[in-house]
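User: Show me a protein chain along with its predicted structure.
Assistant: Here is one chain, sequence first, then structure tokens.
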Amino acid sequence: MKTELKRTALYDWHVAQDARMVPFAGWEMPVQYPTGPNVEHKATREAAGLFDIDHMGQVEVRGPDAESFVNYVVSYDVSKMELYDAHYGMLCYADGGVIDDLFIYKLPDDKAGKDAFYFFIAVNASNRDKDFAWMQAHAGGFDIDLKHISDETYMIAFQGPKAPEIMNRLTTSDVEMMVRFTGRQETILGDVPVLLGRTGYTGEDGFELFFPVEYARKVWESLLKEGEKDGVLPVGLAARDSLRFEACMPLYGQELNAELTPANARLNFAVSYDKEFIGRDAILKTKLEKSGPLLIGFEMVEKSVARHGYEIAVDGQVVGEVTSGMATPTVGKFLGLGFIERKYARVGTEIDILVRGKPKKAIVVKRPFYTPVYRK
């Protein structure tokens, strides 16, 4: 039986702009606009890009045990977070395999009284129902109110060097002064309540916006109109992927999966080993014993696109697999990411990528390929 694809509230707008719509994670989403993905990629790097990412999910955790619960299911120690902090973390199985990667916001809970707070969690589109079911399954014994608020919450991203300046023109306070990896509850365009996160998935400065779904068209069109003279463009999934790839940000199902731990993916900054959480012992074992493959970046010496699933070989023996690869628009090289046996993971190691079964020379290089703004 064919499953009907979901559509965001901006679907009709995308179609009216002649966007090419494709199935993605159960949704019908714009992969590119007539401008083309390379132009959209360039606009994001040089000006700003606007992304409809409402296929992603959101979960709220409130109640007296909210912090204890989130700390139990999420890899990062949220007790270290101050109000309005945002941090990257993961849900993991008991064996350390990754269920999903996510962003966690700690926000004041005015309804619960002075000094009360709650957690707002943004999750991936392909995993949103699975994530919520996992949280529900482990909520026993915790005094919490767990809500899946994805259908009532709209999510867009506004990314690029000019995004803060443009966003500032639409808000009542100076959002250019926001610290990266924090959130702020704002009113924009006079009457739109929004959670503004100084976060993103492109390697550029900018924001992710969460607001009631009924304002989707107003917010989207206002940002495009306000940024028109600055070079702002709507951006589809193709350029979103090339942008995150250059910055070496992981994509669930490629650089992250249920078979490997965050330690294999070199994401130890998102794991707090000094607290108990589901999967902690298995991940720590991987880290201490240096077991399993490691994520690497590589450059094709023989120019060719290394695609997801291609095998990596050394001296004719398969030692790993490509997770992502492309000709990069900004960096201008044929690059890839993949998991490889640890003894071959050192920068400078020569490897072969089996492109349609034929070995093509490559070399292990440093990541990220494009240095994100927050690391410069």
